Amino acid sequence: MAKRMFLMLLVAAAVIGGLGYFKLRQVQAAVKAGTSFQPPPEAITTIVAKEETWPSTLNVVGTMAAIHGVTVSADLPGTVDQIKFDSGKWVQAGEVLVELDTRQERAQLAAMEAQRDLTKINYNRMQQLVNEGVISRSDYDKATADQKAADANAAEVRATIARKTIRAPFSGVLGIRQVNQGQYLAAGSAIVPLQSLNPIYVNFGVPQQMLGSIQAGRGVRITSDDLPGRIFAGRVNAIDSVVDQTTRNIQVQATLANPDGKLRPGMFVQVEVGVGEKKSVIPLPASAISYAPFGDSVYVVTDMQSPKGQTYRGVRQQFVKVEGARGDQVGVVSGLKPGDEVVTSGVFKLRNGAAVSVNNKVQPANSPAPKPEDN
């Protein structure tokens, strides 16, 4: 019995040992295969770096502002008698917008004019009598004063009537009407916004260190995401006299033509202003740049060698300095040289030495002046 048990244990140990040996050989083969495994090349697109000359520009966000912009309001209290404008329409300077009720003032004017006529007749009579020596000089002086007072009273009422006829102070585009016929208006009550849109201002801030590069007369280019494909040109006309203590920016104002009124006060726009001489850059699609806190970089395609001495197409990470942008392009001012083949898409999945496969059938956008289609 003991001999039989011993043989069974011996056979079991042999089986377990054989299985262990077989598994060990499997693990050794897997490790050997892992050390020699090469991942498949990553599919990318590339572009050959070319040098171009760009003007030195600063891109900032600006706000549109009307050269003349007011909210037309009532000068004197009164009831709206007539509204002579439509919301959103163009008006000329001096055009009547609203007339307030002036029936009481016109009645007062009639009484004042009658009093003025009477004092004038009395003055003429007194003038003749004083020449004849019938009345004293003091009576004549009183008649003269009465005539002037009557003229002044009538002129005051006429001025009140004129002030209750509210006119456009300048030519421009009206906003939305804020009054109704028959409504009582207190002095200063808003009636309608009025903005002069052509030409128009754009206000923007630039860092204080750029102050020496910004001068009156320098050209600016204005674009807006709301007006794709449109570029507005203007010139700097004023620079503020103080620097903002919070942002350390200084405000700059430029004037530009706006013939069709597409730019409206309050709109946010992108402002490109020249700040120096032209510079040489290598323009790349924005998708080629890998941004990181420790520095911006691109991947350059080159011939590389594997540990076994085999040659393959791979990439190396190259740190670059970028400065300025135009449309889909970003300008690289250092870190690359003309002729370098730079990865333009797929950079997020690359690492130093990674094998790549170039397929340029579909390229990312790379236009300095893109014109996106309307949705």
What does this structure look like?
- By secondary structure, the protein is an alpha+beta fold.
- Among the domains are: 42-54 and 278-358, conserved putative lor/sdh protein from methanococcus maripaludis s2 fold; 59-67 and 197-274, Elongation Factor Tu (Ef-tu), domain 3; 102-163, Helix Hairpins.
- 24% of the residues lie in helices and 39% in strands.
- The protein has three helices and 20 strands.
- The strands form three sheets. It has an eight-stranded mixed β-sheet with strand order 2-15-18-17-16-19-1-20, with no helix packed on it. A six-stranded antiparallel barrel has the order 3-10-13-12-11-14.
- A hairpin with a 2-residue loop joins strand 17 (311-326) and strand 18 (329-334).
Summarize the structure.
The protein is α+β, with helices and mostly antiparallel strands and about 375 residues long. It is built from three helices and 20 strands.
